[in-house]
Amino acid sequence: MLQGRRIAVVMPAYNAELTLRRTYDELPHDIVDQVILTDDASRDATVKTSLELGLRTLIHDRNRGYGANQKTCYREALATGADIVVMVHPDYQYSPRLVTAMASMIASGHYELVLASRILGRRARAGGMPLYKYVSNRLLTAAQNLLCGAKLSEYHTGFRAYSRRFLETIPYEHNSDDFVFDNQVIAQALWFRLPVGEISCPTRYFPEASSIDFRRGVVYGLGVLGTSVRYRLQRLGLARYRIFSPREAAPPAAGAHA
Q: Does pLDDT of 128 surpass 90?
């Protein structure tokens, strides 16, 4: 608990057996009240490891996608009373030790969404980010800032902290079940004028860390640009999209508990 607020860490997991324990060990357990892992039909021993660690474990009956995995995580976190929800990838790419700093920014009341930026501090390449990923990140971020009228350092980090109000406001159930989900969440934050903060975060790139291949990266990039174009069209009053509409009642969680 932090400043009287209940903290939940959610981990959308897929084949994270080799890195889950290291990620969990570096969480600030003095403030984290609950860790929720949703396994998206992994082919390894992710579920076994999660249960050994005593995590609240939900299991998808089939692979539903990264976005769908997050939807299950957030529904469960809200249902169990979390005031602040921090998404930590269990692949050990981001530093779990920053959970306290990110949660504190939410608890301050200044921000509803906090992004751990790999670009702030200029440490992305030093951490092993491939050059093509870095260049793509910078080009897509520049295009999105232009289309959305924002000045964020990046839109593509997977390490985020949310207030309960944020998750209860944005219609994330209408978002993609794939990787562009993350990007749509940021666009929704901007649409609903929910304050966004950023913090510098070192990252690690190594064989066990999850990463999408080039083909899926291209699909993701097109989806990112599509999200920003939709944002601009709706802002201009030329179209309307469900992801920028007021949230409806959320459906029940889709994962089975282990």
A: no
Residue 25 burial (CB count, 10 A): 11
Residue 63 is which amino acid? N
Task: Write down the pTM of the prediction.
Answer: 0.92
Max alpha carbon distance in the chain (Å)? 52
**Assigned superfamily of 7-245:** Spore Coat Polysaccharide Biosynthesis Protein SpsA; Chain A (3.90.550.10)
Task: Report the C-alpha dihedral over residues 24, 29, 35, 39, rounded to 10 degrees.
Answer: 0
Mean pLDDT of the chain: 93
Task: Please enumerate in sequence order all residues whose Cβ is within 8 A of that of 155, keeping only pairs 6 or more positions apart, or say none.
Answer: 140, 141, 144, 183, 186, 224
Residue 70, φ and ψ in degrees, nearest 5: -65, -40
Cβ proximity of 231 and 244 under 8 Å = yes
The answer to whether the CB of 175 falls within 8 A of the CB of 66 is no
Please say whether the beta carbons of 203 and 121 come within 8 A: no
Instruction: At 213, list the tokens.
Output: 């291949």
Q: Which DSSP category does 54 fall into?
A: T
Torsion of CA 47, 2, 86, 196, to 10 degrees: 180
Identify whether the C-beta of residue 234 lies closer than 8 Å to the C-beta of residue 241.
yes
Identify the CA nearest to 6 among candidates 29, 30, 34, 25: 34
Q: Tokens 């976190």: give the residue.
A: 77
**Distance in angstroms (rounded) separating the CA atoms of residues 11 and 30:** 18
Selection from 149, 254, 171, 178 nearest residue 14 by Cα: 178
